[in-house]
Design a protein that fits this description.
Distance between the termini: 32 Å
Order of helices and strands: HHHHHHHHEHEEHE
Number of helices: 10
Strand content: 5-15%
């Protein structure tokens, strides 16, 4: 099922850029946005440049954050961006609209749908996700806010590059729409998630949550009436985007772990934005 999600998500992601965003020079932020800026200035292939720009970010992630993104994410980044160039330079699909607002709306929806499916398939697209986590490590900004700041800067640079405030405004619109669609696909209208884990391998799981996800953990005192034994219960609050990675991390350590996920209306504290 995850392979199907990655394939469909990758196709939607590639089409959003090749059919709507790149033909109309609408930059939705991120490393792909930087690649689009280079394309506008130097005519470099967008997909190839996304792959090239992600290489130093992978190295930065491993050195600073201490983890890699897994084989699925690497494959997704390479395959989707090569497909973008294939659609642009070989298939040459004509854009279905010359209306800039429609291009921003449909490009944002398709991009968000693609990213949401990729996240649900257990992968990611690197880029500003890495930068956001690095900034979170060294500043008081949350990961979400860090990513938003980076995307805002990229779109603003694109506005100066095209000498068009209108293009920048369209980029902000596409970014907003894609973000909302990602949230909708990942967890519907939910905000965040509280996770409770009961396992015989509590310490390794807690260490992995700290090291690989950068999230805080609270240990609750539990009691099993059936076995008459005390059981530590791991409690952690995560964002919607982290749900798939969290489950994979826990099951990778203890396949028999009992995991409970519940919706959270709002989280007030470091690492989370206030609910809008």
């Amino acid at each position: 099922m995850s392979i199907l999600l990655l394939i469909v998500g990758g196709i939607l992601y590639s089409l959003s850029y090749a059919v709507f965003l790149i033909p109309h020079s609408i930059v939705p932020g991120g490393v792909s946005g930087l690649a689009m800026i280079l394309h506008m200035l130097l005519k470099t292939p967008v997909g190839i440049m996304v792959i090239v720009l992600n290489l130093p970010l992978f190295i930065l992630a491993i050195r600073v954050l201490g983890f890699s993104f897994g084989y699925k994410s690497v494959i997704v980044i390479i395959a989707t961006n090569l497909f973008v160039d294939f659609l642009l330079y070989y298939v040459k699909i004509p854009t279905p609209t010359h209306n800039l607002i429609l291009a921003a709306i449909y490009g944002g929806v398709m991009l968000g749908a693609g990213l949401g499916l990729i996240f649900r398939g257990g992968a990611n697209t690197g880029g500003t996700d890495i930068v956001g986590q690095v900034l979170n490590r060294y500043t008081n900004m949350s990961v979400g806010m860090s990513i938003l700041v980076v995307d805002f800067v990229v779109i603003t640079i694109a506005g100066f590059t095209t000498y068009s405030v209108e293009r920048a405004l369209l980029g902000y619109l596409a970014l907003f729409i894609s973000t909302k669609v990602v949230d909708l696909i990942l967890e519907g209208m939910d905000y965040a998630r509280a996770v409770f884990v009961i396992s015989e391998k509590t310490d390794p799981i807690v260490r992995a949550i700290y090291d690989k996800m950068g999230r805080g953990v609270t240990i609750l005192n539990g009691f099993s009436p059936y076995t008459r034994e005390d059981k530590p219960v791991i409690m952690c609050v995560i964002t919607k985007r982290e749900t798939g990675n969290f489950k994979s991390l826990v099951k990778g350590i203890d396949r028999d772990a009992f995991v409970i996920l519940t919706d959270v209306f709002e989280v007030v504290g470091r690492g989370f934005r206030s609910r809008v």
